[in-house]
Amino acid sequence: MTATVQTKKNRPNYYIVVRYQDETTNKERQKWITTNISVKGDNKRRAEQKRKEVLAEYEQNKIDLSKDVLFTVFIKEWLEYLKPSIELVTYDGYKLIIYNQIIPFFEPKKLKVRNLTPLHIQEYINFKLKKISPNSVRKHLWNLSKCLDSAVKQKLIAFNPIKVIDMPKPVKYNGAKFYSEKQIDELLSAIKGDPIEGIVMFAIFYGLRRSEVCGLKWDAINFDNKSFQIKHTAVQMGTKIYKKDSTKNAASNSSLPMPDIIVDVLKKLKSEQAQNKLLQPNDYIDEGYVFVHDDGRLITPNYVTNHFKRVLRWNNLPAIRFHDLRHSSASYLLYLGFNLKDIQVWLRHGDIGTTMNIYAHLDMSAKRNIADTLNERFAAFG
Known about the structure:
Elements: E1 2-7, E2 13-21, E3 28-38, H1 44-60, H2 71-82, H3 88-106, H4 118-129, H5 134-153, H6 181-190, H7 197-206, H8 210-214, E4 221-222, E5 227-229, E6 233-237, E7 240-244, E8 255-257, H9 260-279, H10 301-314, H11 324-335, H12 340-347, H13 352-359, H14 364-378
């Protein structure tokens, strides 16, 4: 195996050309690897040093360059190999990205794993950034990187080409909205008697995530000591519902107190479900969930999202996402005088940093009050 430093016409960077013997055909082949080192300036020495490093890495790791595995074939095999060790919802999420995004881009190129370069990865990034957000592209690259790490372990490639790529910078979501105290009151009045009344109340009162409130089960509720736990979730991806007996993090799986207003809501729901079971002895579906339709079917996350939008439209309320009720809950707690540490505990964030990053903007009303007070105090000096 040998390697040389070369340039390509109209290309700005040096390349390393690795020559090797294909054990299958007994023919000499070559692999071009970009160095990302510009041909401009006095960079030839840097490129030569990179050549030595690459050659040493290939020889030290005994990379078999003769293996002709298509990248699209390899990533499918890798996903199936990974399947037993991850949750089904995670597997389906990976599969959605790999089969709908990554494979359609790379399949026409018919690239072998050993021929995949940082340049190909950069082309993928540039192509996707025209269509989806940087945050979504980063998720794709995470899948790609895990797959290529496996290729390195299997001695198909010497290094993971994604490691030398500059990842797209994450974009912070600034579109979060929240309801004022008055708007929360209006929403609670508008939702009276609606199928998702209890769901909205729990989202506002406890700041529950959609998966948490949909996944709430009766076995997590203790009427004796007036408390409940978030220990079940219901996640929806497309038409599939993933019902899990686990939560997002350890802080999420904690006990929360139930004041009388919440106890009354739950007892009313339990009584209604008992009546519906009597009326539909053969057709009622009982899976133990708290928030269900009249026939016992789970009220799904997508139903909550879509129906919530309709409720807001019907009642001329400002359009917000269902998840923004979690922000609204934080806003209301700030209005009542609780600090960010209190809110962290109540909303079950793993650390105060998460609370500060997401909800720091919600105390703007408090800042305005300070500004108005100072304005009145110093008005005479203006």
